[in-house]
Amino acid sequence: MTDLELQTLLDTFSANRTPGKEDFNASKMFSLLEDPFSIWCSFHAPAEEAVYESNRYENLKIRTDRNTRDEWIKQEFPEVFFVSGADETERFKNTLAAMARGESAIANALLWNLPQNVYGGANLLVKSDQAPSRFGNYHYHLFQFKRAHDLKEHYALQVSLLNHILGAIQQYTPSDTRVFLKNKQVGVSYRDHQERLERELAFWRKIRDGEAKPEAHKPPKAASSPWRVFANKMVAQTKDLLMLPGLNTEMRQCLKINGIYNTDDLAHADLEKIQTILEEPHATDSYYNALAYFHKKPILREAGHFPPPVKKYNLYFDFEATETFTKDNVSFVYLIGIWDKEKNKYVSFVAKSPEEEIKIFEDFYNYIQDFSQTALYHWTEYEVRKMKKLAAQHPAHAAHLQALCAICYDLKVSVNKAFYLPAPSFSLKAAAPAFGFQWRQDDCGAMDSMVYFTSWLKTGNDELLNKVLMYNEDDCKAMLYLQEKLEMAEILDIKNEKRI
C-alpha cells in the first residue's frame, strides 16, 4: 500500500477529525448496558454538575491487567508490533501502517470508523492467511483480554463492535473473535451478536440525540463518576420512586401508569389501591417506605427485632479484604477493625500477607474478654460467612473462629425486620446517612482502600494505611451511630398510622 493510499484510508475512517463526544467508544459498552443514565448525563446534564471522582481501584486494575497482558503477548508472539504514537491520530495511522505492512501481530491497536461514529482499542490483532483483505492475501483477527472468569454480555458486544470496525477497515469481517478470560478463552460469534449490537447502538444514538432518557440507579450510586453526585441529588430532589427499596423497573412503571410518580404520591395513596397495582409484599413495603420519607422518620414494621441485645461488652466490627489482581496472588482479609463501645475506641488488626491472615483472627479472638458477656455486631452476612470459610480451611483454628461466629449479631437483619426507613436501601452507606452520619473521607471507599493498602505494602508510607484505618473505623462507628439513632428516634407504628 502506497503512502497516498494509506493517507486516503486514514482520511476515510477518521473523517479528518479525532473521536469526540458524538462518537461511541467500544469501552463504554458496559455503561450503555448497565448505566445508560450516565451516558445521558454526559450529553444533557449541566457541565458544571460533573464531579470527577478518582477510581483508584479501577486504575490499579487496568495497570495490572495491561502489564500482565503485554507480558503474555510478548511471550506468545515474539515478533509482535506494539502501536504507539504522539497522539491518537498518529496511533491510528500507525495501526493502519502496521496492517498494511503485514505485521504478524499488532498490540494496543486503535480502530476507528468515525463516519459511523464508533471507535475503540484492540488489545491484539493477529494475522491470518485464510482470507484476503484490502491489505493483501491476509487479514487480521481480533483478540481481547478480560479480567473475569466468565464472558459477560457487554464483553461480547464490545468485541463484536471492534470486530465490526475491523471488518470495515480491512474489507473483511472475521466470523468470530477470541476473548481471553482469567482461566480460559472463548470465541464470540459476530453473527450471534450483530442484531443486538445494532439495537444497542441505536439506543445510544437516541440517548445522544435526546430522544431517550434512561432511568438512574438507586442512590448512593445513582450513576457513575462524574455524574454520581448529580444523579443522587436529582433522584432525591424529585422524590423519585427509585428512592424506594425493593421495587424494580417494571414495578415503578406500573405505579407511574396509575398516576403515582414519586414517593409523595405513593404516601398519599390508599394502600388498598397500591395492592391492586403491586403484588405483596412490594405493595405494603413501598407504601410504608413512602410514609417514612414523608414523615422523615422510621416506621416500625414489627416489634421485637430491635434494639439488639445489650451485653457487658459490645463490639462493632468490619473486615477489609484484598482482591486478586493477577493469577499469582490471592484474596485475603488484611484488616479487622473494631469499635469498642465500652472503651470508646477503635482497635485494628492488620495482616500484611495471606500467611498472616489467620493470625489477626486469633488476635480478634484474644481481644474478647468474656465470650458469654460479649456481642459482636456486623452489617450483612459477609463477616460470618468469611469466618466459617476460614474455619473449614484451618481446622486448628476452627474452634476459635466458630466461637466468634456464635456471638455475632447482624444489625442489618435486625433493622430490616424492624423498620421501614427513609432510605433507598438497607446498605450501611444508604441507611446511616439517612440519619446524618457522614464518612470522613471522600477519597477512600471499600475499593479505594485496597489500593491504599497495596501501595502501603510497597512504599511503607503510613499515611496510606491511616486512610484505610480511618475508612474502616467509620464503617464500624456507622453501625453504632445508626443503632443509637434508631433507639432514640421518634418512631411511627404502622398499626396506629392513619392515612395522610
How would you characterize this protein structure?
The protein has 19 helices and 15 strands. It is α/β, with parallel strands linked by helices and 500 residues long. The chain folds into 3 domains: 3-208, Alpha-Beta Complex (Lambda Exonuclease, Chain A); 238-295, DNA polymerase, domain 1 (Orthogonal Bundle), CATH 1.10.150; 313-488, Ribonuclease H-like superfamily/Ribonuclease H (Nucleotidyltransferase, domain 5, 2-Layer Sandwich). Strands 1, 2, 3, 4, 5, 6 and 7 form a 7-stranded mixed beta sheet that branches. A 5-stranded mixed beta sheet has the order 11-10-9-12-13, with helices on both faces. The protein has a 3-stranded mixed beta sheet with strand order 14-8-15. It is globular, with a radius of gyration of 27 Å.
Helices, strands, pairings?
Elements: H1 3-14, E1 24-25, H2 29-34, H3 36-44, H4 56-76, E2 81-82, H5 88-101, E3 105-113, E4 118-128, E5 139-145, H6 153-170, E6 176-180, E7 185-189, H7 190-208, H8 228-237, H9 249-257, H10 263-267, H11 271-277, H12 282-295, E8 299-300, E9 313-321, E10 333-340, E11 345-350, H13 357-367, E12 374-378, H14 382-393, H15 398-406, E13 408-410, H16 411-418, E14 419-420, H17 428-431, H18 446-459, H19 462-488, E15 492-493
Helix pairs in contact: 1-5, 4-18, 6-7, 11-12, 14-15, 18-19
The structure class reads alpha/beta
How many domains in all?
3
Number of helices: 19
Q: Let me know the number of strands.
A: 15
Could you name the key traits of this structure?
globular; alpha/beta; 5-stranded mixed beta sheet; 3 domains; 500 residues; Nucleotidyltransferase, domain 5; DNA polymerase, domain 1; Lambda Exonuclease, Chain A; 15 strands; 7-stranded mixed beta sheet
